[in-house]
Amino acid sequence: MNNHTGRQRRAAWAATAAGALALAASSGAHANGPKAPYKIVPGGTAKFVPLDPKEPKGTQISIISGDLKSGPVALLFKLPKGAVPIHWHTSDYYAVVIEGQAKHWLAGHDVPAKASGVGTAWFQPGGSAATAHGDECVTDSCTVFVYLEHGVDYHPPDSSSNR
Description:
The protein contains one helix and seven strands; from the N terminus they run H-E-E-E-E-E-E-E. It is mainly beta. The chain has a single domain (6-29, 41-148), classed as Jelly Rolls (Sandwich).
């Protein structure tokens, strides 16, 4: 008899999906350099720090592996309830919601974004303002696993900066 609750099964599925995405995304990530060492972060033990030290109650991050600035990097984002302004990133990225409910949408699309729960995954192309998108945590907080090949950056939609 299986004694797992629905929440435990969803969390296990999300963790499996996040791991599979990371493995698929990183299959060629270290072709020109050393591979990152083995690391495991058991559920509930990630150490989060503010993405922006000036906003200690804002977005928090926990780096699982890699280099935040240059990538590749796998990390957890813990988002407070609310929307993130429309933006784009230099790097493509893969994401999986592992806690809470979040919305993700492409800027300029008329279809309203729907809240998506644990296990929801997406690939977001990066590179220019043409890839601008929005994110919103609709629960008290959301945790999202993210893998970026070229590090984390953030550009407003009118920016043409490459880093």
